[in-house]
Amino acid sequence: MNTEQFLQDVQARYPQAVIKRDEPLHIHTAFKTGGPAVLFALVDSVDMLSALVTSAWNSGIRVKVLGGGTNILAAPLGFDGLVIKNNCRRFELQGMKGKFTNNQMKLSQAYLYAESGAITNQVVRYVIDQGFGGIEFALGLPGTVGGAVTVNANYPKENMRIGRAVYAGKILTKEGIKDVDNSYFHFGFDESSVLKEDTVLLSVLFALYPEEKDKLWARAEEAVTYRTTTQPKNFTTGMTFRNMTLTNLYPNSSLPRDVTPEFLLEKSGLLGHRVGDVELWRDNPHYVLNHGSGTNDDVEKLQQVVKETVFRRFGVQLEIQLHALV
Ligand SMILES: Cc1cc2nc3c(=O)[nH]c(=O)nc-3n(C[C@H](O)[C@H](O)[C@H](O)COP(=O)(O)OP(=O)(O)OC[C@H]3O[C@@H](n4cnc5c(N)ncnc54)[C@H](O)[C@@H]3O)c2cc1C
Question: How far apart, in whole angstroms, are the C-alpha atoms of residue 26 and residue 31?
Fold first, then answer.
């Protein structure tokens, strides 16, 4: 990595850019762990985001973009590259589709443009207020639009995922900026193509539909209530069990057909299990809590205990996913 060449290059071309050195990452992540990023920048324009990422790549420097830091575990050794905190927060309605009948416009679709650092909750509230549905189930989801789309964030109660509302996006790769449509993202279980190292999501276009505001607010408030009653508030990171459909993986197993990871963890006595200051949250094992001085090492040990115990008890190999900044 050629840090000095990168810093000189940035200073000469973008004097307004502020690059910090050795920025502690624990202050930028919800789980509150993580050592220093060798280089750190906070950006609030998409042009600057693209420029810094491209300059870093050209200098052989690895880049990681952080949205709200609510779904990532930063490594204790920090990050040997550039971490960019994405504060590109602009969003607006950019077009509508519909038909004129009897001198009246009947809307069928609206498009909402959001920069990837836009706060998900602000975007959701805005579109509901405009009378458009499609992402109301995301109210109460912490973080940014970029983070939500990158990990294809969900509303577990109804198994809704944000990826289904994505119409198009703008991404930055080493070949330059590209416009992509929904099919590019290959939205999956807590993942999308954006999670590849050399891709940065710059902006998103959501396709929304007209709906009565009262109905939208009712659905959104239900989602908030669901989240506040099933999710922890602080110092947490998500832990996903990828093989949710265990019966598909183990068709000959004698386990009940509706078995879920929650069921296996509960029956294995793992809910609330603690390693050091890290807990598999008793109320919802899809979250790991940091009670204060928890470390990533504790998280790793906890995962190991979970996997080994469930395997010993049920013969089921749980696949655990955590997004890591390493
Ligand atoms: C209390 C709590 C409740 C939560 N509830 C839910 C929930 O209901 N459903 C759910 O799915 N998740 C939930 N989460 C997890 C998390 O909040 C969401 O997944 C959220 O959408 C992540 O957004 P973020 O901006 O914080 O992403 P970050 O944590 O900042 O980033 C997540 C990943 O995306 C990458 N990334 C972020 N932005 C970009 C970009 N522009 N370009 C390229 N890569 C990028 C990061 O590098 C990282 O790998 C919850 C978390 C907490 C703490």
Answer: 7
